[in-house]
C-alpha cells in the first residue's frame, strides 16, 4: 500500500509599518515557500506551503520578525494528502 504524505497550505495576512510595505514585500520575495497574492494599505496577503504545520508556523514566525512587520497572522490552513510515487506515477487523494 502506498504511503501517504501531507502537504500543508496556509494563507496569512501581514501588517507592515507605514512606509515599510515595499521593504517587507522585497524580503518576502526571498522566501522559497511563500507567495504574495496582494498588497494594499500596509497589508500583504500571502500563501505559505510546506510539509507540516510546524514548517508553516516557523515560516510565519520568521516573517513576523522581519524589519517593518507589525503582525503576521495565519488565516486558514488546508492539508492535502498525497500518495508517494510508485513506478514513476503519483495518485493524489484530497
Automatic annotation (TrEMBL):
The coiled-coil segments of this chain are none
Q: Which domain of life is it from?
A: Bacteria
GO CC annotation: cytoplasm
Query: Which positions carry the signal peptide feature in this UniProt record?
Result: none
Q: Where in the cell is it found?
A: Cytoplasm
Any GO MF annotation of the entry: signal sequence binding
Q: Which InterPro entries match?
A: Chaperone_NapD_NO3_reduct
This molecule's function is given as: Chaperone for NapA, the catalytic subunit of the periplasmic nitrate reductase. It binds directly and specifically to the twin-arginine signal peptide of NapA, preventing premature interaction with the Tat translocase and premature export.
Kindly state the subunit structure of this protein.
Interacts with the cytoplasmic NapA precursor.
Q: What is this protein called?
A: Chaperone NapD
Q: Which organism is it from?
A: Shinella kummerowiae
Higher taxonomy: Bacteria, Pseudomonadati, Pseudomonadota, Alphaproteobacteria, Hyphomicrobiales
The primary gene name is napD
Amino acid at each position: 500500500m502506498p504511503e501517504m504524505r501531507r502537504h500543508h497550505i496556509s494563507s496569512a495576512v501581514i501588517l507592515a509599518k507605514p512606509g515599510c510595505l515595499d521593504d517587507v514585500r522585497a524580503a518576502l520575495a526571498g522566501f522559497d515557500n511563500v507567495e504574495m497574492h496582494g498588497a494594499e494599505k500596509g497589508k500583504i496577503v500571502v500563501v505559505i506551503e510546506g510539509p507540516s504545520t510546524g514548517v508553516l508556523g516557523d515560516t510565519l514566525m520568521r516573517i513576523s520578525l522581519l524589519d517593518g512587520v507589525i503582525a503576521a497572522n495565519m488565516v486558514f490552513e488546508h492539508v492535502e494528502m498525497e500518495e508517494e510515487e510508485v513506478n514513476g506515477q503519483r495518485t493524489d487523494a484530497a
